Amino acid sequence: MSAKLKAAVLGATGYSGLELTRILLRHPRLEKPLLLRRAADNGASDLADVFPALSGNGGYPLHPLSWPALKQQGVQLLFLATPHEISRSLVPEAIAHGMRVIDLSGAWRLKQEQHRAIYGFQDSDAAAAEELTGKAVYGLPELNSDRLATAQLVANPGCYATSVILALAPLVKSGVIDRNRGIISDSKSGVSGAGKEPTPKTHFVSVADNLSAYSVFSHRHVGEMVEQLGLNAHELIFTPHLLPIPRGILSTIYVYLDRQMTSAEVESSFRDFYSGKRWVRVFQSPKLPEVQFSLHTNYCDLGFCLAQDGRRLVVISCIDNLLKGAAGQAVQNMNVMYGWAEDEGLQ
After folding, report:
1. Separation of alpha carbons 334 and 291, rounded Å
2. What is the DSSP code string of 50-110?
3. Which residue range or ranges hold the Semialdehyde dehydrogenase NAD-binding domain (predicted)?
4. pLDDT at 42
5. What is the model's pTM?
6. For the CA atoms of 141, 130, 153, 168, what is the dihedral angle to 10 degrees?
7. Distance CA 8, CA 78 (A)
8. Cα end-to-end distance, the chain, whole Å
9. Strand pairing of 280-282 and 236-242?
10. Domains of the chain and any CATH numbers
């Protein structure tokens, strides 16, 4: 085996960052990753200070971010599990220092300004940011694997976006959806999808024994969905909901078909589209995915039910929001970038 890759993680103290660190620590192609401390880490010097469950394993020191130090230690790949505005400012510097970057935030996912505006970025060098935006590869390997090998910057998809795009891509690409009648996605996520920072809406008292909708017509992942699927904004209605569970996403997606189809034809369209794609599982109708089936895995589970008229279709998509929706997909992207098997370190 050739020399192992040296990677660094900024943001290991978040939920996705922790999952990412755990995967990288066991990945056979990597040296032990360098963990970088954020200002928001409140002076923590070791990851076990934040997550005591890691105590007694020899230590996971958190280092201050220093570009000369990263270069000295031979870091080739930087993972950013940081807030969007931090990633937006750090990525140009990392690229300038010769590193490849996988960014788990939404800072570089969106090509179109009208979709990116929801983040309110204030770039110090707008021209440079626009150029970098154009070069960023949207890191959904099932759709963009051919572009990942040469990518300097990979923008890891959002969790909701992953579940919806993978559910719809085979149908959109084959042109069988009656887009004039619109598409509806009713998606539900566990609380970890909101990140580690507590808010009144994610407090236990607010979430337990409850189910709530939020960000109706204003969720920032919608831009990713319509851009990657080539839809017009008015063709998709997306409503996210907060489930009283720690992790997992279930998206129920309603479409009208432009012609009568059989269940066998629908299943074939999914299986043909994802043939050879390691991390998508297509269920045979009428069996449907459930949140618990994909938890703690990098799978996106897809299933469907077709109405008797052959024109109304419901697609169910389930992922673990912290893995296929974040850290696991980031590692899958790394594997493709470096020409390794997509399941290395993820089995």
Report:
1. 26
2. H-GGGTTSS--BEEE--HHHHHHTT--EEEE-S-HHHHHHHHHHHHHTT-EEEE-SSTTS-
3. 6-151
4. 73
5. 0.96
6. -10
7. 5
8. 19
9. unpaired
10. 7-156+326-338 (3.40.50.720), 159-319 (3.30.360.10)
Residues 144 and 311: their CA atoms lie apart, in Å, by 30
Q: How many CB atoms lie within 10 A of CB 39?
A: 9
The string of pLDDT tens digits covering residues 67-117 is 999 999 999 999 999 999 999 999 999 999 999 999 999 999 999 999 999
Residue carrying structure tokens 């270069």:
71
pLDDT tens by residue, 62-78: 999 999 999 999 999 99
Q: 115 in the Ramachandran plot: left (φ > 0), alpha (ψ -120 to 50) or beta? A: alpha
The two three-digit tokens of residue 129, written as one number: 């940011």
Mean pLDDT of 187-197: 89
Q: Quick one: which H or E segment has residue 242?
A: strand 236-242
Check residue 2 and give its pLDDT.
Answer: 66
Where in the sequence numbering do the catalytic residues fall? Answer: 159
Residues 6+ apart with CB under 8 A from 95: 101, 132, 152, 153
Which token pair is 232? Answer: 């017009």
Q: Is the pLDDT of residue 305 over 80?
A: yes
